[in-house]
Design goal:
alpha+beta; seven-stranded mixed beta sheet; 39 helices; 42 strands; 44% helix; oxidoreductase; EC 1.14.14.17
Amino acid sequence: MDSKDVKNLSGMDMGFTQVCLWTLLAFAMTWTTIYVTNMRKKAAKLEDVVAEERRDGGADVIIVGAGVGGSALAYALAKDGRQVHVIERDMRQPERMMGEFMQPGGRLLLSKLGLEDCLKGIDAQIATGVALYKDGKEAVASFPVENNNFPYEPSARSFHNGRFVQRLRQMASSLPNVRLEEGTVKSLIEEKGVVKGVTYKNSSGEETTAFAPLTVVCDGCYSNLRRSLNDSTAEVLSYQVGYISKNCKLEDTGRLQLIMSKPSFTMLYQISSTDVRCVTEIFPGNIPSNADGEMANFFRNTMAPQVPAKLRKIFLKGIDEGAQIKTMPTKRMSATLSEKKGVIVLGDAFNMRHPAIASGMMVLLSDILILRGLLQPLSNLGDTKKISEVIKSFYVIRKPMSATVNTLGNAFSQVLIASTDEAKEAMRQGCYDYLSSGGFRTSGLMALLGGMNPRPLSLIFHLCAITLSSIGQLLSPFPSPLRIWHSLRLFVLSFKMLVPHLKAEGDGRQVHVIERDMRQPERMMGEFMQPGGRLLLSKLGLEDCLEGIDAQIATGLAVYKDGKETEASFPVEDNNNFPYEPNGRSFHNGRFVQRLRQKASSLPKRRLCRTKLNCQLEDPESLKLIMAKPSYVMLYQISSTDVRCVMEIFPGNIPSIANGEMVDYLKNTMAPQVPSKFRKIFLKGIDEGAQIKTMAAKRMEAALSEKKGVIVLGDAFNMRHPAVASGMMVLLSDILILRGLLQPLANLGDANKVSEVIKSFYVIRKPMSATVNTLGNAFSQVLIASTDEAKEAMRQGCYDYLSSGGFRTSGLMAVLGGMNPRPLSLIFHLCAITLSSIGQLLSPFPSPLRIWHSLRLFGEMALPHFWLWTMLVAFVLMWTVFHVSNKRKTMSKLKLEDPSRQERRDGYVDVIIVGAGVGGSALAYALAKDGRRVHVIERDMREPERMMGEVMQPGGRFMLAKLGLQDCLEGIDAQKATGLAVYKDGKEGVLPFPVENNNFPYEPCARSFHNGRFVQRLRQKASSLPNVHVEEGTVKSFIEENGVIKGVIYKNNTCQETTAFAPLAVVCDGCYSNLRRSLVDSTEEVHTYMVGYITRNSRLYDPQSLHLILSRPIVCVMYQISSDEVRCIAEIPADSVPSIANGDMSTFLKKSMAPQLPVKLREIFIKGINDGERMKVVATKSMSAMSSEKKGVIVLGDAFNMRHPIIASGMMVVLSDVLILRHLLKPLGNLANVTEVSEVIKSFNDIRKPMSATANTLGSAFSQVLVASKDEAKEAMRQGCYDYLCSGGFRTSGIMALLGGMNPRPLSLLLHLFAITISSIAHVLSPFPTPLRVWHSLRLFVSAMKMLGHHLKVEGVRQMLSPANAATYHKRYMAATAL
């Protein structure tokens, strides 16, 4: 071959190579194009499928696994309105050996989820504790019954796991929005790190998909999805081997039998009335074979001899009968969060611990309850950012329960292992001795084991105590060198056992607090918490620290200057951006600090000492600020009996306290400047030698430390002048911000990340800190008196601005109260004060001197911040333009869309009712029956759990019948009450409602019941009518035009703000009404507190009487509210309410109240306390009825008029009002006629008087008379009242007819009250009138007349005393109520 051929060949080779390369490149490009196109199509198809499924009412949540966790979560989320799709690999009844024991804490959680019925009908067995056996000894450890602060029956349940799971599945699948499907989930459908759904094989073997915004994986310890979500691996510790002995019963069925055998524990417990579960622990490497009979021989020959003789027969019965022996690994796995979004892992797929303490289900149910609570506010589960925040919060909040159970389970399992090592064996013996020792040791450890007190700190305390107890046993009878060595080894072993578990549990973080003095502080500062501070406190979960310290409500500021007075309240209306009650609290700083310390350290709460100076401000709900000279004076109530007096003095002029100069200065210089109505209180403390404290008012800018690993907070970091009392608010804001920034960090040892957090913290805190610091320092300068005209004008301008009302007062008070912590808002108000002051300086005309002073004032405030003024002017101009244009759009839209013009013509809605309680629901039904279209808006449609409104008097039942609602008392297990049983000093009187000659056209008996059940029946009855629309939502404010209410603005249950229009709005949203203040100026008065609870599974000896015990200090009441439940109530003075949280209330009721009860009632009274029933405390309030000046609105119920609840007449009055209002509105064809509706409201206020005046006066008088007293005159009145009630004849029947609403005539009431007074005077004067008895009689008469005079004045003398008018009113009332 010549060179030419070679050349041709090489050319051919080169061409072939190029063709191949170009072909390969074309193929790669084609394949890439096709692949990308297909991927896009798949993504689009996936989005279309998801969107289509969501449009077709697809699932909100997919749950993988229908075990205990999956079924319980499905039920909980479905009850919240979610669409749930549950996929379970096997729907047959499981046959598991684990999950057969539910601790008391688990039962409580199950009941909170509404699933307690799942333990019924499965032959579950009660377990009250544990029986321990070791080396032939036996001990019993019970779950604590007394002083356990556990609001549920303290007993466990054991059962067949499969039966329980099937009941849960049945409960879940009974809901229409739960789809339960059999299928095997193969994988998760994921897109950009977000899980969109699952791929699964259904029961027919077809592979299909399901989509939902949230997927929950709880498919157990063998989860096939866990590995795709996190890297956590389960560690196998040992194996549980067990079987069931059938047709047998333990000697003590109520206890779990725990035998501390070798190599580890053996357990026997009753899982049905005929089956006993037998379990033992075996370690890897020594597991006998089950197939060839080695396991049965191991049980017979090795384990059975260690089982106590009384249990051995049952233990061997299952083996001899060939029971199926199951082996199951015991695993441990720490909880780890998945980095993928849109998915949550729960149950054994998420977190496992040793099953020695049988608490897995309890942790799982706790997790479900927490997760449900966090998901409830979210309307859109597709918001991955919010869901991610929820999952992070869930991981932190679950720690107290999970960390306690995980650590206890894993530690307990190690302690129970037998060993030849003396140190380990001593630890094992110490654990047995500790559990069997009784007292707080046993009860404390059993409370932890039962989930009744899931606190990690309590667990650590008990584990350390067991360690020390074991060391003490090792060292006895004397500490030889060998025993000391074993003790040291034991101490190290226990530490090695505890620390890894604490480390594994991670965050909640372990915190070490060092304080120089743990005694209660006696500080003068930090005694006032603004509304913003209270909101921050609630966000930290510390709001209950303001309870039980006699903290006082503060609704605003009262400012005094030069004999003038003005009120500046925290804004109630138009504060929609502030989601909390807009008032402050004042208190003893030391008491508050101690409560915080107790909360943080979980120490048992101690009673706080109280210093009683016995004085109270005229208006204790306002902080009194006196603009005195040289600076301000402040007075505020810090407890119900103590008033703090503070004034500012400047350096260089501070009088000496030691030589009395300070006292003289306060008396002679400051006291004359204090308004006369407060001067006596101001001087009282000085005259009584109260300790005078001096404290520097400091200011310090916040500055970051350059050192790493440290953060400075509080007054050590940043101080401002205390004039605005906002130091605690800034500190709590800082804590909340810091907590949020630290939460995502798993390792606080990473100095760089922590440094970044600190820098972020310094920036994020600025809005709150800058606002408060600037306001505090500016306010302090303005309040200083001066001879300089410019400064004095600024001081006067500040006073005028605060007292001007409207947006000026509310805006500045919102800034001051931390309700609107925006620097720009603060600057606006400060500039407005400046301009206002300048305007005052220049009036009545701008002379050269006034102009000069104005320029000086402006220069001092403005020139240093010229750029700030420019920014403010620009902002104001932009805001004005935007606001005016929006206002025009809104007005034109309202004119076009206002239902008052369009929808009302079509008969869309005639009446809006705010509140669907007794009054709102009854009125809705009544008006709808008259053909009106009614829109009811209720903030919470769940069944209420109220302690009041549980008794309906005969008069109330009659009103209910007249409204056509009498059947609402059926089907709620209401109890008949024919009268009253009264007890005093060992005597008893029975007072029936009058049957004969009563002129009452209805059955004369009352009914007692669960308030929530009755309200739900009324709501069902109202919503059954087609022209009633009942909606869940929170009304924020009224829509008002020219003084006429046109409708309401409210947030619906999806948190969207919307409007509703109607010609008439009715407000009946209860005693906590947020609309009342915008309508009337009436204020509620708190008299006492009612504490109550329900004693279950009990029945009074006389269930048809309401039992009233005239005890001390006030009364006790007991009555049957269902066939097996008794309500117990005790009235307590407002200034001495014991704390429920620390057990003081239980002790008070047991030791102070119970001994005063008749023996036949005492057992039931105490039973409820011993059973740990939930106690509620409710304030007893009174408030006079007052009409609103605004038109188009009516107020009803407790939002309108309140009286003392002792005579249980609240529902009767509101039903009477509903009946009257319905009667008056009936003739009106057009409710939009404002004049006619106004006339109706006036008539309504008059016609309602017979019933309301009678009930109000009787309730108030009765409540005052029944208070025990050392005063002979008052005590005689109390005795006279009892004697009159029990005397029989027309006296008893007359007063009972009044009390039952059967004869609602004020004049009749006055006659009976006057007769009681005369009867009491006769009792005082007998057997003969000595001068002292005459004196007491006169005092008694005067006090009775004062009491009656007050009510005559409030209710109207003309209506109550004039016979002619009384008859007229009564006649009109009878006509209105159709008697």
